[in-house]
Structures are given as C-alpha cells and as structure tokens.
Specification:
Oligomer: single chain
Largest sheet: 5 strands, mixed
GO molecular function, one term: double-stranded RNA binding
InterPro entries: DZF_dom, DZF_dom_C, DZF_dom_N, ILF2, NT_sf
Helix content: 40-55%
Shape: globular
Pfam families: DZF_C, DZF_N
Number of helices: 12
Strand content: 5-15%
Mean pLDDT: 86
Protein name: DZF domain-containing protein
Organism: Megalurothrips usitatus (bean blossom thrips)
Length: about 400
Amino acid sequence: MRMARGRGRGGPMGRGGMRPGPRPLPHGVKPPMYLPRHPFDLALCEPTFPRVKPAVDDNAFQQALMKRNLDLTPTQKEHSAVLNLVTKVQAVLDSLIINPGSFDACQIEEVREVGSYKKGTMITGHIVADLVVILKTFPTREAVDKFAQKVYEDLQVAVKECKSDVALATTERGFELAMQGATVRILVTTIVPNLRKLNPEFHLDSKIIQSHLAAVRHSRWFEENAHHSSIKALIRLLRDLRRRFEGLEPLSPWMLDLLAHNAILNNPGRQALPINIAYRRCLQLLSAGLFLPGSASITDPCEGNNMRVHTAMTLEQQDQVCLTAQTILRVLAHGGYKRILEGNTPDITSDTSVWEDVVVSPLEKAYEKPPEKKEDEEMEEGAALETMET
C-alpha cells in the first residue's frame, strides 16, 4: 500500500520524528563566548576550604629547598668572572656607539642586559650573561659577522693586560664571547620600524629578532614586578627541576619566571608565600592543568590580546608537562623530596618507585597525536581556508 505523504503522529517532536535544530539567536545577540577556567588552586580557595587538621610540619623540606638554592647559586669566583667580562664587553660596545670610527657595517641604537644575569637567577656551572644589541640598521648576516669580528678584536686589546684568551663563536642569534669560564651572548635585533622590511634571504630570522625584543620587555617587567628574593630562589629551583626531568623541558625560562611569580605572590593576602609552599604549589598547578588547553593559564604581561603563555607549547608538550608534574607531585606527597631535589636516577617519571610502602607508577600520555595528513589533503584544506577568508 502506498502511504500518503504527511507528518507522522505527534508531529515533528513525536516519537521517531525529527528533532528541531537549535533556534537562531535574536538579531543583534552574539553567541556566548568560551571562557577559559582556572584550575583548582588551594592557595586561592583556602578561606572556603578550612583545614580539618593542622598543617604537617614541613620544616625538613623547607630546609632542603634552601640548601639546594644555596648550592645552585653561583660562587663568588664565578660571579666575578662574568661581571668582569660583561663590563669589558659593554665598554667596547659603548665605544662603538660614541665613536665608531671607520666601522660602518652597522649602527647601534642601544644595548640592554637581559636573561638570568640581569634577573639574578643564574645557576652555578652555567655562567652566561645575555646582552641584546638593538641596531638602527638592518641585521644582515654579513653585518653581524663584521660586528662580531670588530667586538672580538677590540675586546682582545682590552684584555691584553690580563693575558687572557678570548674565544669567539657566531650563532644564528648573534655571537658569543668566552673568557675565564664566563660567556657573554650578544643577541642581535633591530628597531621596530625595520621589522616589516626584513628579508629572510639576507637578514637574521625575523622570529629570532622579535624574540630578542621580547626579552627586553621581559627583563623590564621582571625588574619592576618580580624583584622579591623568594621569587628568584624559586626560579632557580624550577630551572634546576626542568634541567633534570625531561618531561619539563618544554617549559621556557619566561614560563618559569611567570609561574614562580604567580606561585609566590598570587594569593588572597598578597604576601610572599614560604618557598616550600610555593614550590609545591607550582607542581600542584601544573598537575591540575594550568598549562593545558581550556585553562586560563597565566596571561603574558608583555604581550597584547590576553595571550596565554602556555600556547607556545604544542598539545603534546602540554600533556607531557602535566603528566610529569603529576608524577613528581605524587612522589613529593609521600616524602621523596630528596630524589626530586638532588637527583633522578633511576628516573621516577619513567620507572616505578616505592615511597613509604606506596607504589608510584609513571602516568601514561592522555594526548594522542593525530595521524599526519597527506599533502593533497593539506593543500585542499588550505585552499578551503583561503576561500573562507576571501
């Protein structure tokens, strides 16, 4: 029998009927924006969740942190060596600014100290000072090579009385000068008006040049907002942790600076937290997903558009940092702070370990990288995106 066309019983909402789609929003009403959320942070929520039992005595852990920070602090000899080299290099650069003479390969706008040397967070054994040289002229590779040779020759004359050998090495970021175990890295960049005129065939990489300008902004912000001694100590401890645990390597020095500043000062009382609480808080925040997709994370204070710092990492790296922090935090919760601070053999993030009769097994990755797309599919997708933008 041929059935007549028409609505089924109950209309479109009847059983087996089609469900209506989402209703369109009224004219002029924008759809709700996605709001990233901050992960649970006990330091911010402690007034809402009062303690049932008094806090456990953490004095041994605090003393271990202070001792480790002291061990990581450069010795007086190391500090004197890098200070001596920085002073001599700056004198050479100042003379090129004031009286360049016959040197015309480039013109220097200004020189700024950046990095761990400027911030006071250097680690013993890694005595490196960074100087950003901002050029008025374009940073061509040929000009940078001549600039490096000129500084090297003038520095040799300056240290001739000390009878010390100076080593020169060129890099993609500029060049390095080493003497008596200390190193000064010259990071070359240019003034902002020149950025749009850079040619990748002749000039240094534009991303590197912009990162050097960002380093100047980071140094200025740090000097104004993060000069507390506890922040510097925590940064040194976090960099040491990153150096010994492979899963934390994606964290950049700038991410660690902001993480330490947030852990020390971002609390209801606006008072600096003790180093042991702040250290544990860093691991808790990373474990809770502070640097995962959908998190409010930490807004970069030196960039616009509310850029969150963790977006510089890939999704795979974000997952790696989170699961590594979770494993380290579990070991710390069961009294394994000595392994975390002083060594990592065998690796607790890849091998099972036992702490106070508690077995801590390494976590597995939650993110699976999708299969690589074929070249044809990528080209079709790119063409579709271009059409949509047009």
